[in-house]
Amino acid sequence: MLEISMQNITSLESNAGLLARYMALRQPENVVQAMYVWIDGQQGLRAKTRTLNFVPKSSSELPIWNFDGSSTYQSEGSNADVYLFPVQVYSDPFRGGNNKLVLCETIRYDKTPTPSNTRHTCNAVMDMAADQEPWFGIEQEYSLLDGTDRNKPLGWPTGGFPGPQGPYYCGVGANRVFGRDIVEAHYRACMYSGVKIAGENAEVMPSQWEFQVGPCKGISIGDDLWMARFLLHRVAEDFHVAVTFDPKLIPGDWNGAGAHTNFSTKAMREKGGLAEIEAACKRLEKNHAKHIVKYDPSGGADNARRLTGKHETSSMDKFTYGVANRGASVRIPRQVADDGYGYLEDRRPASNMDPYVVCEQLVRTICLNE
Ligand code: ADP
Ligand code: MN
Ligand code: MN
Ligand code: MN
C-alpha cells in the first residue's frame, strides 16, 4: 500500500553542523542561486539549480531552461529535452538571502504543454472566470513515514499498531503526536517563501497531519499548494523523514487523507450568498461522476480506498451536501449558514489530487456552468 518502500537506509547521521559552516559563507552580492522546481510525469516533484547574476523580481525576468524529460516520465530518450517556463518566484527558505525557488511549467519542443502540465488549461479557465473572483483554500492532509523503516508511519511500533484513534487529532504530548518539529519547520518555511499558508493541525490517525493554504485567488492556489508540497518534502528530507500523500495509507479502521477544497465566488461572499452556494451545490451534484474521475490521479481508484462513507467521508457513488455535515460530499460550514454568505467545502478530493485539475473543474462547473 505504501508508495515508498526503501529498506536499509544506511546512514541517518546528521551533517547539519558541518553544513552550516558552508551555508554561512558570504555569498557574492547579486549572485543568486535559483532552484527551478517542476512537477514530473507522475506527480512527483523535481528540482535543479542554476546561478543567476541578478536578483529576479518576477518570473518574467527568469531565463527559460530545460531538463531531461526521459528521466522524469515526460519524454522519449530520442527527443528528451523539455522546457521549463518559470511562472512563480518564491524566496528560498533553505539557502536564504536573495536565493529563489522558481516554480515552472513543463513545455514540449513544439511549445505545447506536456500532458502532465495541468496548470496550462487551469490558468486559461481562471482567466475566463476572473470577473467572478474565485477564491480557494485547500486542506492538505499527509502522513510521515519512519526514517529507517519507510513502510511504517513515523512513531508507530514495529510490527504492531498504536492504540485506536481518538487521542491524536489536534493532540499534544510525545505519546500522541509524532513529527511536530517537521510541521513547525514547514510552517515557517512556507511563510518565509511567500506561500499563503493558513494553518496546521495534527490529524485523527497518529503521524498524520494537515496544513491549509488559502484563501488564494485563481491560479495562485495551485502554485502555492504545489510549492507547499515541495517545501514539505524538502523539510522532511532534512529530518530524514519521508512524506506520503497516499489517500488511505493504512487499510482498516484508520482515517484516510483528503484535500478538502474550499471555494467561493464574489457573489457567495456577499450578503445573500448562501443562495449562490446552494445553486453551486446543485451544479456540482449534476457533475459528480465526472468530478470523481478527476479528484485523484488514478481516475477514482485511489479515492475508492478512502471514500467509504466511514471515517468522516461520503459515499463515492452518491453526491450529498449539507450544513455542518462532515459525512457529505460538500459541506456548508455552520458559520456560513449562520451568516448567510461565505464559501463551500468540497470534501471529495483525495490527498494526492492535483490542485490545478480540481480547481479547474470547480470553476468550469460553478462559474462557467459547463
Ligand atoms: P475545516 O473546518 O474543514 O477543518 P480548515 O480551517 O482546515 O477547515 O480550512 C479552511 C480553509 O478554507 C482554509 O484553507 C481557508 O483559507 C479557506 N477559506 C476560508 N474562507 C474562504 C473563502 N471565502 N473562499 C475560499 N476558501 C476559504
Ligand atoms: Mn481542516
Ligand atoms: Mn483534516
Ligand atoms: Mn475540512
UniProtKB/TrEMBL annotation:
Annotated ranges, domain GS catalytic: 118-370
Annotated ranges, domain GS beta-grasp: 30-111
Domain of life of the native organism: Eukaryota
Key words, A-Z: ATP-binding, Cytoplasm, Ligase, Nucleotide-binding
Cited InterPro entries: Gln_synt_N, Gln_synt_N_sf, Gln_synth/guanido_kin_cat_dom, Gln_synth_cat_dom, Gln_synth_N_conserv_site, Glutamine_Synthetase
EC number: 6.3.1.2
Pfam families in the cross-refs: Gln-synt_C
Gene3D superfamilies in the cross-refs: Glutamine synthetase, N-terminal domain, Glutamine synthetase/guanido kinase, catalytic domain
GO MF, one annotated term: glutamine synthetase activity
Location(s), subcellular: Cytoplasm
Coiled coil: none
Main location, first listed in the record: cytoplasm
Alphabetical list of SUPFAM superfamilies matching this protein: Glutamine synthetase, N-terminal domain, Glutamine synthetase/guanido kinase
Catalytic activity: L-glutamate + NH4(+) + ATP = L-glutamine + ADP + phosphate + H(+)
Swiss-Prot/TrEMBL GO biological process terms: glutamine biosynthetic process
GO CC, alphabetical: cytoplasm
Similarity remark: Belongs to the glutamine synthetase family.
Protein name (record): glutamine synthetase
Species this chain originates from: Dermatophagoides farinae
Source organism phylogeny: Eukaryota, Metazoa, Ecdysozoa, Arthropoda, Chelicerata
